[in-house]
Each structure stands twice: as C-alpha cells, then as structure tokens.
C-alpha cells in the first residue's frame, strides 16, 4: 500500500484505480460503476469537510477501509444469489452511516434493491444527496429511523433477501437489530474484525436460534487487498424472527441475547 503515498488524490480515486483494486478482489467493475464509486468518494471528501461523517476521509482510507471493504461482500452476495432464482434481490443495510456497505453494493450491483437505514439525520441527508447525484433512486431508498422502531412494521419485517450491518456494535446487538428484517431463507452478511471472532462465533452459533436463524459460514476476507483481517459471518434466517425481537434499545444493550 506504500505505493499510494506517492500517488495524488486524483490517481487514488481514478476510474482505472477503482477498477484495478476491485479486480484484485476478483470483482469486475464497469467503467460506469467505477466512475460512480469515484464520484461518491469525492462527494464524501467534500461533504466531510463541513459535516463529520467518517473519521478519516483521506482518499486511501475511503478506498481501502470503506469502499473495497464494502465491495468485498459482492462475490459472497453473488454466490448466495446464484442459488436462488428470483431477481431482483432486496437488501437492507442497517446503520448505513455514510453508505457502507449499502450504497457501495447498490452501485456495484445494479439489480439489487437497497434500503439503507440510519438513525442519524445528517447521515441520511448525505445519503439522499448521493442517491440523487448518482441517479440511484430507482433501486435505492434511504430511511431515517432506528432499526428497532421500524422492524415491526409490515413494510420491513421479514421482507428482505439480505441484510448487512457494519461497524454498528457488538455482535448480539447487530444480530437482534438485523435478523428480524430477513425473509425465511434470507441471509445476513455481517462484517466483523478479527479480534474476538472465535468467541463471537461460538456464542452466536447457539444464541441466534432464538431469533430463528443459524450461523452458516465464516469467511476470512482477502488480507492482501484489505490490509486488515476481516471476517464476514453469514447467518441464514430459518423462519420469521419471533415478534418480541428486536426489543427496545435499552434492553438490547443492557441484556444482550448472548
Ligand atoms: N455502516 C457504516 C456506519 C457505521 S457507524 C460504516 O461501516 O461505516 C454506525 C451507524 O449506525 C451510525 O451512522 C448510527 O447513526 C447508526 N445507528 C446506530 N444505532 C442504530 C439503530 N438502532 N438503528 C439505525 N441506525 C443506527
């Protein structure tokens, strides 16, 4: 990655660089998709100057830590989708923040219907402006809400083929907030750091049964490209989550399911 210290901002976020870095993750971006990702990164850099959306908006940080890290879910998503017939698939991204991974996946997979949910108004205003700038409104909708407040409404509950939730908190919190949105047969793709992965996995394996789900796979993402060890835990929803989940935020936090 040191090479990037010799590159200027424009070349880090160039269309060619997006394409070649994505190719290292075995993802083939079209020129249009690479251009949209590049524009998205540039909008975020400018916006972050007046509104704090990401801690570090340096181009190499956006490219590697956020955009490629989000894109890394794409081959997994495509692999899961290949086993199903119905298209287009729907995905809900809980706590999308500045759009990771939801908006990145929407750009890279045009046949995916993405719902990005965030509790914080300024994040939602930003996300909406990106949707407009990149003309994504046909397959992306942005919702300003807390996940636990909308999870019981008919329009959302047990409604999605896929769910993502990145960097929102501890795994039991993330599972409780995310899994009730999945249809039976749907999958959550939850990105985790490597530090407590073994402990998290063994606890989650037993505990997610109460949400109607099973931990089916743990995938180590490509450390050559992403620099850090990142896992994706894949949970499959076997049946609808019981109506009592998700609980109120204070209970989710104070009495985690595992
Ligand atoms: N997923 C993004 C943002 C992570 S920060 C990324 O990986 O960069 C966590 C985000 O979750 C914040 O934007 C916060 O507003 C949102 N959030 C926290 N609790 C939430 C909840 N209960 N429902 C919806 N959004 C929530």
Main CATH class: Alpha Beta
CATH superfamily, called what?
Vaccinia Virus protein VP39
Strand order of the largest sheet: 3-2-1-4-5-7-6
Q: What fraction of residues sit in β-strands? A: 15-25%
Oligomer: single chain
> What is the second-level CATH architecture?
3-Layer(aba) Sandwich
**Number of domain modules:** 1
- Please work out how many helical segments DSSP would assign: 12
Structural summary, described in words:
- With 258 residues, the protein is of the alpha/beta class.
- The chain has a single domain, classed as Vaccinia Virus protein VP39 (Rossmann fold), CATH 3.40.50.150.
- It has 12 helices and 7 strands.
- A 7-stranded mixed β-sheet has the order 3-2-1-4-5-7-6, sandwiched between helices.
- Strand 2 (112-118), helix 7 and strand 3 (140-144) form a beta-alpha-beta unit.
- The longest helix has 18 residues, at 31-48.
- The protein is globular.
- The termini are far apart.
- The mean pLDDT is 94.
List the keywords.
258 residues; alpha/beta; Rossmann fold; seven-stranded mixed sheet; binds S-adenosyl-L-homocysteine
Tell me briefly what this model is.
42% of the residues lie in helices and 20% in strands. It is of the alpha/beta class. Bound molecules: S-adenosyl-L-homocysteine.
Topology:
Layout: H1 9-12, H2 15-24, H3 31-48, H4 59-71, H5 73-82, E1 89-94, H6 102-108, E2 112-118, H7 121-133, E3 140-144, H8 147-150, E4 160-164, H9 171-178, E5 182-193, H10 197-207, E6 213-220, H11 223-226, E7 230-237, H12 249-254
Helix pairs in contact: 2-3, 3-4
This protein binds S-adenosyl-L-homocysteine.
């Amino acid at each position: 990655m040191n090479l990037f210290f010799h590159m200027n901002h424009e070349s880090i976020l160039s269309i060619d660089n997006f394409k070649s870095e994505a190719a290292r993750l075995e993802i083939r971006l079209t020129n249009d998709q690479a251009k949209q990702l590049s524009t998205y990164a540039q909008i975020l850099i400018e916006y972050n100057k007046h509104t704090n959306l990401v801690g570090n908006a340096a181009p190499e940080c956006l490219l590697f830590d956020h955009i490629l890290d989000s894109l890394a879910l794409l081959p997994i998503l495509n692999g899961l989708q290949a086993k199903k017939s119905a298209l287009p698939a729907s995905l809900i991204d809980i706590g999308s923040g500045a759009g990771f991974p939801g908006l990145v996946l929407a750009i890279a997979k045009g046949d995916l219907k993405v719902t990005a949910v965030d509790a914080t108004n300024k994040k939602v205003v930003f996300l909406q402006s990106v949707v407009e700038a990149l003309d994504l409104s046909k397959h992306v909708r942005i919702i300003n809400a807390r996940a636990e407040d909308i999870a019981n409404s008919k329009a959302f509950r047990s409604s999605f083929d896929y769910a993502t939730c990145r960097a929102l908190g501890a795994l039991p919190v993330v599972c409780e907030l995310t899994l009730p949105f999945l249809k039976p047969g749907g999958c959550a793709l939850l990105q985790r750091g490597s530090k407590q992965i073994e402990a998290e996995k063994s606890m989650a394996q037993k505990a997610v049964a109460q949400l109607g789900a099973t931990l089916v796979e743990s995938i180590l993402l490509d450390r050559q490209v992403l620099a850090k060890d990142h896992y994706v835990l894949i949970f499959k929803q076997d049946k609808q989550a019981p109506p009592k989940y998700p609980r109120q935020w204070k209970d989710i936090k104070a009495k985690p399911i595992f």
